[in-house]
Amino acid sequence: MNATDRLLQNYARQVRLPWSANIAGMQRVWFAVYPPADERRVRARLQHFENLTREAGHGWTCVDLTNLLPSWMGAHDYREAAFEEPEFFTCDDELEVLAAKRINDVCTSDEADANAVVAVVGLASLFDYMKVSRLVGRVEESIRGRLLVLFPGEYRQNVYRFMDARDGFNYMAVPITSSENFLTA
After folding, report:
1. What kind and span of H or E run contains 181?
2. Given pLDDT bands bounded at 50, 70 and 90, which one contains residue 143?
């Protein structure tokens, strides 16, 4: 069995567990952790994540952040200067705020009730422009069901590393990895 199949198998176990309603937003977050090299494989199997979620009796909706950076950059007043001298370009937290707004809008929609999973895909396209821990911190209060973050990186000893390059962060999310028989309640 390959790593993506094991990740799906472990997700299937996690999504079938009973959901407690009396937990904080940060505990409603699930990180599906996989090697960055498997990004396309995992994205190609997104329908399987949805099917497993629906089979477990939960709703599903997805937020794709893949095109957020090019859309934002295309509308930016200083885009030409940024392309000429990219080393001097910063986006501060504008992109993070925009990503958080998109996720919050979906999390507060009618279809994302307390029995639904909101999946976030496309984080790899935002690497080097935002920190995932801060993004999740901005949206955790709006999570009513569960937030599934498809996370290209690694999880080791309670520390997440985005794209295997960022300094790790310790977050209270439930890790779902491609390790054999890995499950955390």
Report:
1. none
2. very high
